[in-house]
Amino acid sequence: MQQYFVKGKAGNPVIITDKDTIKHMFQVMRLVEDDEVVLVFEDGIKRLARVISSSNYQFDIVEELADHVEMPVQVTIASGFPKGDKLDLVTQKATELGAHAIWAYPADWSVVKWDGKKLAKKEEKLAKIALGAAEQSKRNVVPEVKLFEKKSDFLKTLTDFDKVFIAYEETAKAGELATLARELQTVKAGQKLLFIFGSEGGISPKEIDAFEAAGSIKVGLGPRIMRTETAPLYALSAVSYAMEMNQ
Amino acid sequence: MQQYFVKGKAGNPVIITDKDTIKHMFQVMRLVEDDEVVLVFEDGIKRLARVISSSNYQFDIVEELADHVEMPVQVTIASGFPKGDKLDLVTQKATELGAHAIWAYPADWSVVKWDGKKLAKKEEKLAKIALGAAEQSKRNVVPEVKLFEKKSDFLKTLTDFDKVFIAYEETAKAGELATLARELQTVKAGQKLLFIFGSEGGISPKEIDAFEAAGSIKVGLGPRIMRTETAPLYALSAVSYAMEMNQ
Question: Which pLDDT belongs to residue A174?
């Protein structure tokens, strides 16, 4: 069944006001009276809703649904700004794979420079991709998308997390492959994890120092070298496997 | 260091004959006498090699390298033919994530029809993507790319594997998330695994019956619904995490 995210708290009846949502509901899906959809408000609860009026965009809540597909931990991924449209792919796939937030920051070795208007436009585009992917993969929440203009602002957030992992290629080359699994065994439900990835050029030694000074841990993600847009997908799959499947 | 796959057995000296490889080596990378690269022959061993003659495309083998990044098991993924260029992405990412072979078959609910010349052309394109990704991710082998024209030929291969898993969305919906981890615990190094994925429409009940009749096991891949091109990336990451990192 078609699922839509709706801003704010659940009321009854519900009147949809977001233009894109209205367009998808009544022009693309051509909903009519008595059709049913799933609405998800900011409390993350899925609710079955029935169209009361297709001209007033009005719905009646039928019932709450028990369906919950979020990870037991909140995983944020943070990529160094990569070239081109790679963040589009990362955003779509990371949303399907359960990311709680999708961030990017200007890494020392990022080739692209995004700031001001360009950054805001990019962020808006990625937020739309996350919304669409969250609806399709039936998520309970839409991942937050955030592009940091200054690395210093990104660095300040590191202390907000229970664990911060640095996906570090040299660690992978050195064969240190047990750290992530060992660390994940100590993670408790409800905790906040952050995975930091470099841009195509990797993570600079200065950045490693800054991340480690804030308590981050270097981890390898398997013995193979992955592109910058592939590593976050591995990390999310690994956390899902460790915490959702391996019981 | 730049890595190239070379057909056949390792000799000494080596003369490169593949046109694309020659072009990349001597036009793109502009190798000259005494430059070093890594050559990987069909035995999967990486060898440091030095240019002897850039006009004759001749190399001298310096030494064998111990670097081995292949999974302890051979994982084949088989996707129902998906729409558009999705297999391009699957092939590139699955190669980075360690797939031993990347297959696709005409699923009951595949929308596209590929056969004859079109299939051969598609397969050739995907093989090039796999080769490029294998070089970039420093693999020891290039994954085999194979598009089956007939599903019956695909079905015949199932008995060649030690375990065949069906990535089945209904299983995920039913919350059966422990099967894959339980099964992977019984897998031994050197064994051959196959993961079967549907096309966008999923896997038909008739196909499920045929796969199960051949001994395949339905598994869920986490509680979220993934697009057809994302599920193989999850499966490969999960196997890597279970068998390469979780020790």
Answer: 72
- Structure token digits, residue A20: 């894109």
Smallest Cα distance from B52 to chain A, Å: 29
Residue of A138, A178, A240 with shortest CB distance to B245:
A178
Q: Does A84 lie in the same domain as A8?
A: no
Per the structure, the complete domain to which residue B54 belongs is given by: 3-65
Strand-pairing partners, residue A46, are A40, A65
Same domain, A28 and A103: no
**CA Rg value for chain B:** 20
Determine if the peptide bond prior to A13 is cis (ω within 30°): yes
**Interchain CB contacts (distance < 8 Å): A and B:** 120
Q: First CA to last CA across chain B, in angstroms? A: 29
B-chain residue closest to A236, CA distance: B234
Interfacial B residues in 6-25 facing A (CB < 8 Å): none
* Residue B169 pLDDT class (50, 70, 90 cuts): confident
In this prediction, residues B30-48 reach a mean pLDDT of 97
Shortest Cα distance from A114 to chain B (angstroms)? 26
Number of domains present in the structure of chain B = 2
Q: Are A167 and A197 in contact (CB under 8 A)?
A: yes
Asked whether residue A87 falls in the same domain as residue A61, the answer is: no
Query: B112 and B38 in one domain?
Result: no
Question: Is the CB of B177 less than 8 angstroms away from the CB of A244?
Answer: yes
